[in-house]
């Protein structure tokens, strides 16, 4: 009844090419942003910010990065954790070299280092495809993990081989480090994620997005209509790694406050891949839904017994979480192989014809 | 179709629901002691007995004495899977509920929490793990790591080796010592001290790093050991790395009585899988092994027999179970001190910090609590949050651990300068680091 | 210059100086290669017959071993436990076919791949829930597996051969031979090969896909059990093994996803390659390169032969 | 002036030629010393029985296969082997026997991809959706809409290609090729699997394209009626060799061609 596009005629191509051509979608996004930027900081508890929202946002950004590569360009990567690590360690080094530069600027810059490394490990992608490429990215993952521990320069020769986040301020307000308030960090994470996702959406509606999808759908045909496969794939690796790198830097500087090589291990890569696939390959919205589900569910399960007044051992809860998550993954794949984002679309489609479906 | 929405809706609602703060009123009649555990994942072999030991001792105090000073201890486990993100999440979920002390049980999680502790006024007890430098009380008023740092441990290992070679450190000259370690923050920590000693006393060091993914596949590394023929091997291992190393050593034909592990490489599960081949393996320890103590009998009586524990009967008295007990003793004694210091019954994190800072467990006190000779005398002060206690060496006889050395004191004059330097380094790298403004308690109890 | 020397000359000098160590390295490499090959074999079986890239193969190894030891801990005699574990693997195969493969038939391979991720989680959770998360000691003695080693004096030194490793090699060869016979001589084997060639063609001649899937998953489960016993006997049975199971991936790259001989040869190459790499070239960069060396071998190999050792050259068509 | 004469007048000098091209796949000969040329504006057909090497020929022309011998001449340049993106840049468009559309994308996006070579937008412009990117997008959208109108596929603009029936997919593929503004268009069996009506439509579109845009067309087709109807010259391949070349009438009466189609033993 309320979700109708009938009557909204576009009179120019510009209007037709808008990110959200339907009025209700625009209103929806505005409301979500309003809630995220205003209502949440005013009401949410520190636990909700620190352990739920900030992680979900950071992981969503990493998932968006992987989605650009796997979902939009069709290149399966298992090196996400490694690329996030590159971002994190690059950001750490940048803060030691340029202690007075704005930390947000440095976080964004660290993405470029990840992009460079990502491009290097994307080089085999011209010759190898599919699962073979996935194994190549696995090489990147293990090699980078090894580097993060074996190159002490990366963590400034810290005895514990870990990087600790120094306190950085902006306008007199602590932004990173233990004294930074959850709200401040949340707002910064939210702004960066919102801006970068907007950029990703822009890329996807323009030429570059189309060339990526063309390569995904049929690389040979794409080549024959003049798309340079190599450049396109490498660009996808670079942009994707940029996003992962920024996510990694945020993970350390705005979420955990500390990291070591093991924070960016193979399990991290798998986790992000789950998010992308559960959320929906080739959907930006899906990256968020996937991250929310995969990160949120264990938290819900962990706290659910308390709310329900049950006393279950925390280890048992954790073990059950594995089972439930696994079953859910299979369940979602069976009911909707295209992920949560497709469910959302189907829901919208239903809404369009509601309440008179015929 | 409908089901899909239900599930999706439930998931979304759940996430939102979880973000509602766990609004638990500050209980007036109990003290919250969270235990960070890992009963799952690749490190569970070490995590389970420790968690059980801590849990059981504190539960025993509740059951036998009605808590400490008449106040019950509210023991709550949080499963970290030995993952930093999970650990930080656990911390955040307890933060607002005023816990007395946090036991991270992971060097990585400890490192992540150190900067937060002073801000949130929650003391952190990392018992003989974590950041060695945090022993410096002037810089880390909220962090405690008794009874020993890894540098103490390394100096003791070398001292023991020197003794076996017939005397002082000068006997090490020309020897080769191999160091096999978990290639992460934890395993790399003792390296500076090892190198210092090597330089000073003229012995060679061979490094054998085990990257985390290779914990259970070390045969390549042990070929290197066979080639290099080190006279002694020292191990800083954890989790599944330990039993694999002991087995590989046995397979390679390395003499196990020349292979000595840190106190985290000394669980029964580390030596047992090697079967008869594991005989002779050495490890350092600072808590006694065995169940023949009144306090442990009380645990069996008040907790395990009542079915209030996850501990299998045969785990009681094992090394890491007792390690957990020792950790719980430190917590309990610190609570007692804090209660005496402040005169309060129900204390909070800030009081607990004072209790930890004046912690003193003498031989007599060990005896009083029914654990005579169980651990070394522990003496924490305002300046020294560690105590640098003595450690003994135990040997696996094929069935159980046997104490084979006296209590050996660490080489403090070598360790202390390193600690100060490391603390200075840490503080320098993490500017602005808060200056200590917590006053020292000079009252001795 | 010095660097070049230590890369290209010194390792070979070492090999010459201590030929016994070289033999030992090769042997150790072959032995871990056999285990990689067994994991890869499980992958290949399933991939061949159902087109599923079974990520859960590694965890199936742990799960099978855990079940065996767990049952034994609960007082079931070793051989009975072994038989029961085989039954459990059969149940697992049927469950996988019913709950995952059948509903997801005809989905793109990435979806099936993901579903096996889900299966991985379920198996980890179930394994820990039922048997606990603590690592267990493999009951190799009860199963009649040998322990101890032969020490052979040769080449001015000695080579040590673990009896359990020899047993592993023999069992692996027997299994491969057995699978070969099943594949080539029996009715079900012919059906399997038909399915591997073309699902639709197989259907059209009346082969039941469901039945075939159960058979291959069961076979992969049995292979996993054997692998789990062998690997468990070498260290212990714990979930940390899962990461090592990933080493089967470079093996598959080398050997091709559908070739059983490829899996064996690939496994041996990877095993020998990474041990040699770690032993002779690892010290140049501080050691511990085994975690990624295998993947790099596979990667370099791929750049020259994208189709793998035994794969046919791919001619792309439009 | 009749229609045929008018067409004949428009036809100019050769723009594309192959000389003695041979192609083998691991010992199997796909093409043997084939030579022919294509003139400006012409509709040139390649015919032959199954497996005669027709598609291979097209694949050589736009660089998907590299011939072992022979030369390709295009607009005065000589190539020992073409590269796909060079072919595309120089204005060789292509459709495929088994439709090679981007199935996950809408019709509009598929055709917009065809404009890729004409677009200059870089990463920054697009990420920030700067005016330059916006302008370019609209400009090319206009060109694409023209093609959409021309091929009468307005109603399926927003439909994902994978959901379209076969005939329409073929038309979208043609649209995508046209979006490249090719000077030479290679059509690989554009009418395969179509019913009579669809074939007629397609013929009309092909001729319209030839007329309206002046595009030179090289096509492979099985339907002899269609070939004889719309092409100016025909080259006949059999077992990878050229056996005839000429106007439809000449080819029709060529004995070798008749034998090849009737399957006379060599």
Structural overview:
The complex is a heterotetramer of chains A (about 350), B (about 450), C (about 325) and D (about 270). With about 350 residues, chain A is mainly alpha-helical. Chain A is about 70% helix and about 5% strand. Chain A has 14 helices and 4 strands. Chain A has helices spanning about 15, 25-45, 45-70, 80-95, 105-120, 130-150, 180-205, 205-215, 220-225, 230-255, 265-280, 285-305, 315-335, 340-355; strands at about 160-165, 170, 175, 260. The model of chain A has no long low-confidence stretch (mean pLDDT about 85). By secondary structure, chain B is an alpha/beta fold. Chain B folds into 2 domains: about 30-150 and about 290-390 and about 420-430, Rossmann fold, CATH 3.40.50.2300; about 150-285, Response regulator (Rossmann fold, 3-Layer(aba) Sandwich), CATH 3.40.50.2300. Helices cover about 45% and strands about 15% of the residues of chain B. The longest helix of chain B is centred in the last third of the chain and has 24 residues, at about 320-340. Chain B is globular, with a radius of gyration of 22 Å. The model of chain B is unreliable at about 1-25 (pLDDT under 50). With about 325 residues, chain C is mainly alpha-helical. Chain C has one domain (about 20-305): ABC transporter involved in vitamin B12 uptake, BtuC (Orthogonal Bundle). Chain C is built from 13 helices and 2 strands. Chain C has a two-stranded antiparallel ribbon with strand order 1-2. With about 270 residues, chain D is an alpha/beta fold. Chain D is about 40% helix and about 25% strand. Chain D contains 11 helices and 10 strands. Chain D has helices spanning about 5-10, 55-60, 85-90, 105-115, 125, 130-150, 165-180, 195-210, 225-230, 250, 255-260, and strands spanning about 15-25, 30-40, 45, 70-75, 75-80, 90-95, 185-190, 215-220, 235-240, 240-245. In chain D, the strands form 2 sheets. In chain D, strands 6-7-8-3-9-10 form a 6-stranded mixed beta sheet, with helices on both faces. Chain D has a 4-stranded antiparallel beta sheet with strand order 2-1-4-5, with helices on one face. Chains A and B meet through helix 3, helix 6, strand 4, helix 12 and helix 13 of A and helix 1, strand 2, helix 3, helix 4 and helix 6 of B.
């Amino acid at each position: 009844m309320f979700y109708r596009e009938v009557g909204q005629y576009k009179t120019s191509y510009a209007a037709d090419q808008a990110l959200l051509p339907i009025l209700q979608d625009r209103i929806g996004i505005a409301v979500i942003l309003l809630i995220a930027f205003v209502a949440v900081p005013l009401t949410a508890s520190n636990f909700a910010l620190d352990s739920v929202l900030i992680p979900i946002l950071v992981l969503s950004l990493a998932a968006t990065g992987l989605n650009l590569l796997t979902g939009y360009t069709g290149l399966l990567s298992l090196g996400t954790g490694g690329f996030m690590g590159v971002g994190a360690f690059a950001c750490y080094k940048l803060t030691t070299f340029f202690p007075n530069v704005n930390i947000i600027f440095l976080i964004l810059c660290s993405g470029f280092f990840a992009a460079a490394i990502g491009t290097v490990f994307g080089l085999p992608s011209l010759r190898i495809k599919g699962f073979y490429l996935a194994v190549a990215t696995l090489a990147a993952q293990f090699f980078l993990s090894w580097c993060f521990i074996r190159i002490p320069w990366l963590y400034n020769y810290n005895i514990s081989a870990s990087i600790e986040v120094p306190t950085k301020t902006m306008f007199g307000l602590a932004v990173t480090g233990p004294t930074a308030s959850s709200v401040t960090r949340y707002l910064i994470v939210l702004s960066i994620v919102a801006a970068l996702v907007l950029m990703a959406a822009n890329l996807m509606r323009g030429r570059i997005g189309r060339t990526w999808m063309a390569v995904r759908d049929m690389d040979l045909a794409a080549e024959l209509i003049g798309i340079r496969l190599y450049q396109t794939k490498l660009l996808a690796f670079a942009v994707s790694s940029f996003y992962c790198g920024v996510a990694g830097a945020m993970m350390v500087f705005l979420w955990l406050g500390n990291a070591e090589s093991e924070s960016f291990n193979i399990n991290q890569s798998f986790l992000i891949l789950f998010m992308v696939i559960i959320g929906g390959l080739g959907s930006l919205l899906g990256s968020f839904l996937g991250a929310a589900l995969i990160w949120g569910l264990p938290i819900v399960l962990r706290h659910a017994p308390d709310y329900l007044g049950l006393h279950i051992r925390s280890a048992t809860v954790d073990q059950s979480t594995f089972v439930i998550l696994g079953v859910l993954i299979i369940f979602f794949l069976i009911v909707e192989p295209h992920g949560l984002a497709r469910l959302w679309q189907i829901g919208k489609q239903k809404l369009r014809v509601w309440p008179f479906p015929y | 179709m409908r089901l899909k929405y239900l599930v999706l809706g439930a998931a979304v609602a759940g996430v939102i629901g979880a973000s509602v703060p766990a609004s638990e009123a500050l209980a007036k009649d109990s003290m919250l002691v969270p235990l960070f555990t890992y009963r799952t994942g690749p490190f569970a072999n070490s995590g389970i007995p420790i968690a059980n030991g801590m849990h059981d001792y504190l539960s025993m105090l509740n059951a036998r004495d009605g808590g400490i000073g008449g106040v019950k201890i509210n023991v709550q486990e949080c499963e970290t899977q030995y993952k930093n993100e999970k650990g930080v999440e656990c911390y955040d979920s307890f933060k607002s509920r005023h816990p007395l002390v946090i036991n991270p049980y992971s060097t990585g999680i400890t490192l992540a929490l150190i900067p937060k502790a002073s801000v949130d006024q929650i003391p952190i007890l990392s018992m003989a793990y974590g950041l060695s430098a945090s022993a410096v009380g002037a810089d880390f008023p909220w962090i405690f790591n008794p009874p020993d740092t890894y540098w103490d441990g390394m100096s003791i290992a070398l001292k023991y080796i020197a003794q076996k070679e017939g005397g002082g450190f000068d006997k090490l000259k020309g020897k080769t010592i191999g160091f096999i370690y978990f290639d992460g923050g934890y395993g790399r920590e003792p390296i500076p001290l090892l190198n210092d000693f090597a330089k000073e006393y003229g012995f060679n060091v061979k490094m054998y790093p085990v990257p985390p993914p290779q914990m259970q596949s070390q045969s390549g590394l042990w070929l290197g050991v066979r080639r290099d023929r080190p006279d002694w091997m020292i191990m800083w291992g954890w989790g599944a790395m330990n039993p694999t190393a002991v087995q590989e050593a046995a397979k390679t034909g390395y003499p196990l009585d020349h292979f000595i592990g840190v106190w985290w490489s000394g669980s029964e599960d580390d030596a047992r899988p090697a079967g008869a081949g594991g005989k002779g393996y050495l490890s350092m320890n600072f808590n006694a092994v065995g169940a023949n103590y009144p306090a442990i009998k009380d645990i069996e009586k008040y907790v395990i027999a009542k079915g209030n524990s996850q501990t299998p009967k045969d785990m009681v008295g094992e090394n890491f179970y007792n390690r957990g007990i020792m950790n719980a003793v430190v917590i309990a004694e610190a609570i007692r001190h804090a209660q005496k210091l402040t005169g309060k019954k129900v204390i909070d994190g800030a009081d607990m910090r004072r209790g930890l800072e004046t912690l003193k467990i003498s031989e007599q006190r060990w005896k009083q609590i029914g654990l005579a000779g169980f651990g070394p005398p522990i003496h924490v002060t305002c300046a020294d949050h560690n105590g640098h206690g003595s450690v003994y060496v135990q040997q696996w006889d094929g069935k159980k651990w046997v104490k084979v050395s006296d209590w050996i004191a660490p080489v403090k004059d070598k360790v202390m300068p390193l600690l100060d330097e490391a603390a200075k380094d840490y503080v320098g790298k993490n500017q602005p680091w808060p200056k200590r403004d917590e006053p020292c308690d000079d009252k001795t109890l | 210059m010095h660097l070049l020397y230590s890369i290209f000359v010194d390792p070979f000098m070492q090999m010459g100086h201590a030929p016994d160590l070289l033999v030992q390295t090769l042997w150790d490499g072959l032995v871990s290669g056999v285990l990689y090959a067994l994991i890869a074999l499980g992958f290949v079986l399933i991939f061949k017959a159902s087109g599923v890239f079974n990520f859960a193969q590694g965890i199936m190894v742990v799960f099978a071993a855990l079940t065996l030891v767990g049952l034994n801990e609960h007082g079931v005699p070793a051989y009975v436990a072994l038989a029961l574990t085989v039954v459990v693997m059969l149940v697992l195969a049927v469950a996988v076919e019913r709950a995952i493969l059948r509903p997801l038939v005809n989905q793109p391979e990435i979806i099936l791949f993901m579903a096996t991720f889900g299966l991985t989680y379920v198996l980890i959770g179930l394994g820990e829930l039922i048997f606990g998360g603590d690592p267990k000691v493999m009951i190799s003695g009860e199963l009649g597996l040998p322990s101890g080693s032969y020490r052979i004096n040769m080449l001015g030194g000695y080579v040590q051969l673990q009896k359990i490793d020899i047993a592993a090699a023999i069992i692996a060869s027997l299994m491969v031979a057995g699978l070969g016979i099943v594949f080539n001589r029996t009715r079900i084997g012919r059906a399997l090969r038909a399915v591997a060639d073309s699902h639709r063609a197989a259907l059209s001649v009346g082969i039941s896909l469901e039945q075939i899937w159960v058979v291959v998953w069961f076979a992969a489960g049995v292979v996993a059990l054997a692998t789990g016993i062998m690997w468990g006997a070498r260290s212990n049975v714990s979930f940390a093994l899962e990461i090592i199971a990933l080493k089967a991936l470079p093996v598959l790259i080398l050997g091709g996803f559908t070739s059983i001989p490829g899996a064996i040869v690939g496994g041996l190459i990877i095993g020998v390659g990474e041990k040699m790499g770690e032993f002779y070239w690892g010290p140049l960069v501080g050691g511990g390169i085994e975690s990624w060396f295998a993947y790099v071998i596979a990667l370099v190999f791929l750049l020259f032969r994208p189709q793998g050792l035994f794969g046919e050259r791919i001619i792309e068509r439009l | 002036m009749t229609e045929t004469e008018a067409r004949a007048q428009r036809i100019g000098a050769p723009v594309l030629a192959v000389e003695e091209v041979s192609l083998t796949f691991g010992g199997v000969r796909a093409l043997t010393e084939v030579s022919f040329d294509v003139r400006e504006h012409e509709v040139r057909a390649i015919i032959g029985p199954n497996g005669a090497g027709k598609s291979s020929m097209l694949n050589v022309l736009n660089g998907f296969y590299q011939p072992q011998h022979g030369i390709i001449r295009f607009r005065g340049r000589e190539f020992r082997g073409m590269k796909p993106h060079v072919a595309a840049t120089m204005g060789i468009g292509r459709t495929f026997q088994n439709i090679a559309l981007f199935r996950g994308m809408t019709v509009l996006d598929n055709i917009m991809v065809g404009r890729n070579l004409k677009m200059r937008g870089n990463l920054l412009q697009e990420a920030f959706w700067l005016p330059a990117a916006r302008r370019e997008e609209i400009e090319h959208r206009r060109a694409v809409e023209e093609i959409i109108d021309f091929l009468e596929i307005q109603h399926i603009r927003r439909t994902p290609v994978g959901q379209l029936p076969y005939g329409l997919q073929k038309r979208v593929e043609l649209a995508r090729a046209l979006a490249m503004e090719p000077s030479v268009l290679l059509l690989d069996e554009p009418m395969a699997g179509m019913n009579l009506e669809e074939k007629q439509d397609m013929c009309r579109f092909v001729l319209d394209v030839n007329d309206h845009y002046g595009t030179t067309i090289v096509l492979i087709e099985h339907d002899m009626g269609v070939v004889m109807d719309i092409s100016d010259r025909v080259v006949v391949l059999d077992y990878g060799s050229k056996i005839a070349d000429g106007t439809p009438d000449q080819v029709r009466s060529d004995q070798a061609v008749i034998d090849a189609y009737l399957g006379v033993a060599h």
